[in-house]
Amino acid sequence: MTSELRPETSSMSEEAAVLCVHQSLRRCLDAIEQHQEEWSGAILECGPLVRSLSNLAEQLQSCQKVTFSKTPLSGFTDLQDRLRYKLQAAVDLTLEKLHDEMCKLQRVRDSVSHQVGLVLHVYEVNGEKLGLEASLERTSHSPSIADMLEWLQDTEKYYRNQYLQRKLLLEVRHNQLSDIKNLVHSWESLNDKFTAKQHLVEGIVKVTFLLTSV
């Protein structure tokens, strides 16, 4: 009699495992969707700051090249130093604001990595109960668990790589004026590069919606 119940028990165990993984996936996808709003907001804030920083660096570089003693402003003996000090302070302040926005990006990156790690852990714990067939099974209204896990790992890589490249780009010192002047072009190149991969994050709304019906 016990052997007759085993198939049903096994089926129930598999269904429970699938439900557990789907719940974990849904929590992760909901979190990423919320984080994307914070991420987009920070990137949006960075744009004007990077352009302002580049303009300030150009002004500071011009200020350093001009010999004020040979201009009509020669009577103002401390004008060049005062102007240089003012521009340098503005550069430092802008770099500080950019650092604050990068901290927001770092928090999103860390949270997404943590959430994806939790899903992978839940999947590993339930792996034996799920089996390969259940992991690969797709329906007309839902992708397979394997599909979603792969998508999550790609999304985590998207945030991780983008954060790292932007962070490295902004690791400039206030006296590296030539590098700072070129930040706008490099920053916009990164925007173009990662916009091409934006579909990874945009797909989260669709996948989350599909999971609600599972």
Structure description:
The structure is a single chain. Helix content is 83%, strand content 0%. Residues 1-5 have low confidence and may be disordered. By secondary structure, the protein is an all-alpha fold. The protein has one domain (9-212). The chain starts with a helix and ends with a helix. The longest helix is centred in the first third of the chain and has 64 residues, at 2-65. The protein contains seven helices and no strands.
Give the helix/strand class. Answer: mainly alpha
How many domains in all? 1
Distance between the termini: 33 Å
The topology string of helices and strands comes to HHHHHHH
List keywords for this structure.
214 residues, mainly alpha, 7 helices, 83% helix, rod-shaped, CA109-like
SSE layout and pairings?
Elements: H1 2-65, H2 79-125, H3 127-136, H4 145-169, H5 177-181, H6 183-195, H7 199-212
Helix pairs in contact: 1-2, 1-3, 1-4, 1-6, 1-7, 2-4, 4-6
InterPro entries: CA109-like (IPR029159)
Pfam families: CA109-like
GO cellular component, one term: cytoplasm
